[in-house]
Specification:
Blueprint lengths: L1 H11 L5 H26 L6 H15 L1 H11 L5 H9 L11 H28 L2 H8 L2
Length: about 140
Amino acid sequence: MVLLGVLVVSLTTNMVPLIVQSVVICLVAYYVVKDFCETMKENNEVIVGSLARKTVSMLSAIGRYTLQIYFLHFMLLFRLPNSVCVYLEQSHVQTCYGHAFSNVMEFMIIGSCSLFLCFLSIGVSLIIKQLPFCHKLLFGK
């Protein structure tokens, strides 16, 4: 309850330092996921819903290809457009206090780019898999 109170205050005012806001967001996300997992374990239910199944399969795919993602993402990195960089820079105030939703927007922008890079790395690794010598040389499989 205290974490949710701090989260609400930090998102509605500029009176909470960004480091505290970031830690609180991480803790709230941790407890939400933990509660969800415990509920699913207690009820012995199968995860239902197409969105939940797609999310689980997406995270499973990322988990299966972590070595390939780790190895290939350095070669696939790209520079964000200048307008995005300017927006991210302007969304933070010099006094270490951010705007109400600057962290959420930053998470969405950077998170979507990260997912794009992950799936691009998986695609490139599947292409490399068709070349047995390169696949063995790069990934040792």
